[in-house]
Specification:
Blueprint: H1 3-9, H2 16-26, H3 30-42, H4 48-60, H5 66-76, H6 79-95, H7 99-111
Helix pairs in contact: 1-4, 2-3, 3-4, 4-5, 5-6, 6-7
Length: about 130
């Protein structure tokens, strides 16, 4: 997969762990890559890069744990990185129609100094019967 490409899109440099995970995937060991990233992100001393590598890995696979992983990245990220992570979280929130979380992540996005996005007003259609 394209783990390193995703990390750079989020503003993170590829860590040694993500490079190793990419190598495992190239030789067909996706399970090994998943375990390496999961274990590294779960360590008490996990870096923002390690957390981002895990979140991106899950995101590429549409894993239900993606938003929780990005939440951990949001806490560990620098202010510049926080805007990118908050934006991705907003997209994921809106895809699941979780407006409260999207609004929370919009606030994180704005707190990082960016004001260019707005959450569209959504009203659930009434049932026709």
């Amino acid at each position: 997969m394209l783990l390193g490409v995703g990390l750079s899109a989020l503003g993170f440099a590829a860590s040694e762990t993500s490079t190793r995970a990419r190598q495992l995937e190239k030789v067909g060991d996706s399970a090994g890559a998943r375990e390496l990233l999961r274990r590294t992100a779960g360590a008490p001393n996990a870096s923002a890069e390690d957390l981002a590598a895990w979140a991106e890995f899950l995101d590429q696979r549409r894993d239900p744990g993606t938003r929780a992983a990005y939440e951990r990245v949001l806490v560990a990220a620098t202010p510049q990185e926080k805007a990118r992570i908050a934006r991705r979280l907003m997209v994921l929130d809106l895809m699941t129609e979780d407006i409260k979380s999207a609004e929370k992540h919009m606030e994180a996005y704005r707190a990082a100094g960016l004001k260019d996005l707005k959450i569209p007003v959504y009203t659930k259609p009434e049932a026709p019967w």
